[in-house]
Amino acid sequence: MPSWQEFQPFIVTGLALGGVYALSGVGLVVLYQATGVVYLAFGAVGATGALLAWSLISVHVASWLAWIVCLAFSGALTLAYGMVFGPLLARRTPLVKATATLGLLLILYGAMDLLWTTSGGEVRSLTLPSDSHSFSIAGIQITYTQLIGLAIGVVITIATAAFLRFTKLGTAMRAMANDRDITATLGVPVRRVEAAAWLGCGVLAGVAGLLLADMVALDATTLTFLVISSLAAALIARLRSITLTFLAALLVGLVQNLMVPIPSLTNYNDMAPFVLAALALLALSRRRVIALSREEV
Amino acid sequence: MYGLMSRTRVIVAVVVATGIATLAGYGTAAASTSTGSATAKTSACGTKPGVKATGSPIRLGTIVTNQSGTSFTDISNMADAYFTCVNDNGGINGHPIHYYIETEQSNPAQIAADARQLVQTDHVVGVVGNTSIIECSVDSSYWKSHGYYVIASGIAPECYGTPNYADVNMGPRYSSDGAVQYAIAKGIKKIVFDQSNVPGTGYIAAGPNALAAKAHVSIVQLTEDVPIADADSVAIKEVDDAGPDGAVILNFTPPDALVILQAAQSLGIVDHVKMWGCSTPCNTDFLSQSLGKAWNSKLFVNAELTPPDSTSTATMKLYKAIYQQYGTTGPNKVSGGIGAFSEMGFTEAEIAVHALEGIKGAYTVKSVNAAFKGVKNFETGMMCQKWTYGSYPTHIANNEDYTVTPDNGKMVTAQGCTKISAVDPQIASYRKHAGTASLDPTSS
Fold this sequence. Notes:
Chain A has 297 residues and is mainly α. Chain A has one domain (4-115, 139-296). Helix content of chain A is 71%, strand content 3%. In chain A, α2 (42-58) packs across α8. Chain A is globular, with a radius of gyration of 19 Å. Chain B is α/β, with parallel strands linked by helices and 444 residues long. Chain B folds into two domains: 42-170 and 307-398, Rossmann fold; 172-303, Rossmann fold, CATH 3.40.50. Chain B has helices at 2-31, 73-88, 108-121, 135-146, 158-161, 171-185, 201-214, 231-242, 254-267, 285-291, 314-326, 340-357, 365-373, 425-434, and strands at residues 58-67, 70-71, 97-104, 126-130, 150-152, 165-167, 190-196, 218-224, 246-251, 275-278, 299-303, 400-407, 410-419. In chain B, α2 crosses α12 (340-357) and α6 packs parallel to α7 (201-214). The model of chain B is unreliable at 1-39 (pLDDT under 50). At the A-B interface, α1, α2, α4, β2 and α9 of A face α1, β2, α8, α9 and α10 of B.
């Protein structure tokens, strides 16, 4: 078993990774709360936005403008998807809704492979100004980007919780999470509320895409499927509580990293998110807390 | 009204898609500008400059992997560029080369079907440029039974351990040998050899293990699931295991190698080991540009072919000129630009053309493959040694390498031609069969 000193750097990187998962996880939960859709294309949308930003920077467009384009693209694409497919699938089961977003994921994934090919040893990277500032903890450097990633996770969690609790739109979203039809009957403009949720989720996908492109890799496959680990955190939180999602994401990142220095576990650390999610689902289903679909609540 | 809205949506979608495609194209072009000065004329590729070949075509084929995250099409595309150049400049005794490119996605049934497509439908008389993760494993028996001697860029063990493949590259095992050998020569005390968790890791690891054991240097073998999603923990583990007198040697494709190296840099642990090394895939200007100056002379990369940035031979100039004229546009564009992959495609096509030009009479499966197999001591101008196919049970035709290091966005030579150690039993076995042919020095 490694010593405490050997574990320390992995605690730091685990928290940073958890912050990364939290960013996506919170976005997933907010959208699910408002629309009942598990948005599996979250990572692919962010990845496409980040690659778009990289292309703009490559042709000497100002970085800040490229980042805005990334956020605008991610927001607009997600909003467009929500507006076109949301009403059509509104009465279908959560499984159908999730599978439809898988379709968007695959389309974007194919488009990225076509437009930003990886042949010829081509590699890309997206750096942010915050990369050049760092400080040391446990013998390793932490860049401001990693700190910002974690901070954004905290800020978005707190802000979203406050938004859902204290604003009219947030209250409408919570009402829709309980029953879309009754909420509509009460005069809440459900399409507008859903649009706000789709747009917010899309912009968050863009933010996550930019940060993850810097912190993890500017790679279509990596960014597209990183959402699966975030989904594990969201599932642990029963797709309901954003605070729990945030904490679960940190836990997933920590456990995943703390397995690395243990020789017998190091090759299995990638499965940590799914094992934790499966254990949480099993425990929760035994207590009959989790519902398979919103209709069954 | 609804129809108008639908039409508007479609128009917006088309405009957005076109915009993205245009930007992506610009981005790629902007990242692919490292071509050096190409002053040679492409007419040097053929025997009749400026005369298009109009005779009956000589059909050649290839099978390359092209799947998400792994694409070797730059190799076949550069070979195609070379053949197009030859066709524009006299062809092979007036015959143009028609090159059939089949792409595959690591599906054995598909790969087997591709080989049959080339032979039975396209009627190719030779196979040149195959580069695939598993094609050699799937098709080696088929080529043998049909009398084809493939000129390839190898990856799987069968690409080197069977009589019907000869490669211009070393492949992951011998390239990793070269990187480990360089580190040992620099006096490191421990090696961490980390590679992708894909089929064949044991075969690749056997070479570095043998070299480390012979040098009494301890070696730690690691594998990582790719694409790497948590490079920080990978980098920390590598550095912890290697220690201050050790070396970390990577065997990954460029994107995964890059995220590990960038993670080490951002964590501030680059200097926690004595040196970093990498097998051939890291030998790309893209990687050097992405890493920046911080890695100048800190990372040492095995290079199986002549470093293009610091070489100005006639062959290198021709390669760059052909790339510029034939490889930068069209459906078979060489998107990765100047680099190891396109060098391999150039070299394979060059060897094939050399062999075809020596044929007297009809271009049949028998005559073409006899010519391929008969290539001996051919000066490609792109590798340390002359290239020989020969009748050997195994083929490691390229077994002498360079080492390069990043230098302000380029890869420059850190060590000239060095033989891969025969401590690797596969190298020893090949040299035993091939005799001195495999060690003939080049004239350049």
